[in-house]
Design goal:
The complex is a heterodimer. Chain A is an alpha/beta fold. Chain A folds into 2 domains: about 5-235, P-loop containing nucleotide triphosphate hydrolases (Rossmann fold); about 255-365 and about 400-485, P-loop containing nucleotide triphosphate hydrolases (Rossmann fold, 3-Layer(aba) Sandwich), CATH 3.40.50. Helix content of chain A is about 35%, strand content about 25%. Chain A is built from 17 helices and 23 strands. The longest helix of chain A has 16 residues, at about 170-185. The two termini of chain A are about 40 Å apart. Chain B is mainly α. Chain B has a single domain (about 1-365), classed as ABC transporter involved in vitamin B12 uptake, BtuC (Orthogonal Bundle), CATH 1.10.3470. In chain B, about 70% of the residues lie in helices and about 5% in strands. Chain B has a two-stranded antiparallel ribbon. The two termini of chain B are about 25 Å apart. The chains are: A alpha/beta, B mainly alpha. Chains A and B meet through helix 2, helix 10, helix 11 and strand 18 of A and helix 8, helix 9 and helix 15 of B.
Amino acid sequence: MQTPPRLDLSGITKRFPGVLANDQVSFAVQPGEIHALLGENGAGKSTLVKMIYGIMQPDAGEIRWNGERITIQNPKAARKLGIGMVFQHFSLFEAMTVLENIALGMDANIPARDLEAKIVAVMQQYGLKLEPHRIVSTLSVGERQRIEIVRALLLKPNLLIMDEPTSVLTPQEVEQLFVVLRQLASEGCSILYISHKLHEIKALCHTATILRGGKLVDTCDPAVETSRSMAEKMIGGSLKDIQRGEGRALGTAKLTVQSLSVAKDGPFGIALKDIGFSVKAGEIFGIAGVAGNGQNALLLALSGETPSTSPEAIQIDGTSVAPLTAKQRRLAGMASVPEERNGHAAVPDFSLSDNAILTARDRMGMVSGGMVNAHSARTYAGEVIAAFSVKATGPAAMADSLSGGNLQKFIMGREIMQKPQVLVVSQPTWGVDAGAAAAIHQALVDLAATGSAIVVISQDLDELLSLCDTLAVINEGRLSKPMPVAGANIEEIGLLMGGVHGDPNAPTHISAEVAHAY
Amino acid sequence: MRIKLEKRPAPSTFMLIATPIASVLLTMLIGMLVFDAIGIDGQRAVVDIFLTPILASYKWQDVAVKAAPLIIIALGLSIGNRAQIWNIGAEGQYVIGALCAAGVGIAAGPDAPAITLIPMILAGIIGGAAWAAIPALLKIRWDVNENLTTLMLTYVSFQVLGYLVGGPWKDTNGRNFPATAPLPEQLTLPILFQGSTVHLGVAIALILPFIFWLIMSKSVFGFQIRVVGSAPHAARHGGFDAKQTIWAALLIGGGMAGLAGALEFTGSLKAVNLGFPSGYGFTAIIVAFLGRLNPIGCLIAGIVLAITYVGGQVAQTTVHIPNSTAGIFQAMMLFFILASDILIRYRVRFIPTKPAIADKKEARV
């Protein structure tokens, strides 16, 4: 008799007010299978996983576990069945040790000494390096993720759900994670791997289920598919390549940053140390790095939101803008988009029209005599909505009524359409679907073609490699030497991203498989 | 049955207007029940407090004169509150404003020309603003909570008042009462209607809300105040200076309270004595919230609160309840308005409890 699938979903449907999040989704995960769940933001991946982990209940359809029909009431019930989950956002207490964090997450009350022994056993079994008595705040992101993995493995799971596990890891750390996941699978544990990084799925997964708009589009074998064919299934259309003008020549240095240092703000802040780089007219300059290495501080220092201490640190066309305020820097031609959309780049409870006033009022002539010209603000917001295909009811729509991706398109459009001389953006396509991301990338390339200098700060190495001319890596508030993207060495970039902050036990060498995938 | 709050896609305009009205009505209803329960004619008390001042035309001038300072102070406070800066010391700024106006009047002497009124009122505005500048400076330099400093300075202002009217400024012909000499006739505010007590300050209180409305809804400054209150990081990103906003919010709040004090002194009381602080500065906080921090709303709410003041005095003579009863009604109103605030952004949903069949299935697992 054939063994039944570990997890078998049939006809799973979940409806929220106004949206069908999952529509008749059916697929099965076999024991020992690494199964990818692919889809754009809003495709219904998270909803589906939440139902498997018992956070939500399906409206219709059935879940079979090892052939038996079940209802998973809550996450505790899910863990009892042997379903573990590692979330994208970790739930760890910074001020506590690894051991204390794991103990807090356990359903059963295990004495500390026994727990420590169990943790050490799990770590040895899977080659996970972690010091149980270290304080979490001193750990790298990769190490923190390992705590979550150990926490899940202690339950001896039969199914491990990983939600976007590699978005914060260096290429080397990704490699280490894959080794652990493959070992788990070889021992019979099924893995449901959620990601939108197609090259990783090709390298790791046995099967891929693709969702689009809540519906199952295809279940395929990633080994025979190409990254492009899977991406096109995800977005339901053909993927546009970035169009670059022929025979592009870079101009003279437009943005020059030299010896930029900023003290850290608060105990968990990152200080910037002696940052220097130069971006030519028409150039797109990428800054790679693992989250929390000073990217935010760098953006604030460039935009003028944190005042500069050195008067010559930032120059546009040879003229120093360092002494200028954020408002004055905008007038001098520097626009910026911070990473956090809600409450930083945009005011959630303001209309799009008012959000246009926020950063475009001076450059786009919306102010005269201290009064705001509401009509020109509405017109400009309307132009941004049209040019960037923002899905919104119009300029009067509240910013928080837009999906994250649509708000991001609006914010990017608001800055790009001001035709700034220098544009600094952080995570330009964070949480944006592939189609919209392509449109944003194209708009950045087009802006550069008009002679603007663009700085893109991103944790997504793929994005930087496809978009930028030059690349530098930020680690612990220091910026590496810039290198041309054309001849970039992934292994070297990965090492720079890990830096001194990274895990000393990480291999210095990436397998050809991962390197090839990029 | 489970009750759940669900975020609305957009703030409800209906609730924005309906909740203040409902708060007033609820206050009347609950007030009636409470008074009935303690053996006072609740219906009569509510009618006297809320309706007599509207129905009896001879009470209208009292309402207008009491509404004026409430409206003017609330306008200033609503700007601060919009920017999430909480000035609860308007009472002190009001007292200092009146004292500064009185000081200019005393210095000018009993024979000063009528035009002296202008510097007196300006002194009131500057005095109130200067009193509010102290908490502003403390907040900017040392991040001291303005809630505490503004309130504490109110009590300081009472001491200043006591010192001045009991000492250097005491009326030499006043039978040793701690009060300033009555203002000479030409230095009092013009009366708008012959034979009434309605002075120029009432007209100012009627015009100012429209000016404030224009500033708050159409100017870059109004935009700045709204952004700082709603999303401080976004305000910084948009190039608005947080310190400048703190200064503006507190100085405008203080200046308006000082103006109200100067107008009350020159228009109504004509002398400053120990009884000058009448709680307008505190009641104006209720006015600002009842008016939804909207200048036109403050105008309407100011009139409503003035009605309860006048009505409280009526009820004192008719149903023999203490004058401070009006304060209980005012407090109830603030309570209801703050409690119902959430309905603007959220709606209440009643969710029937699911049958417990699912639990049995889980048990099988």
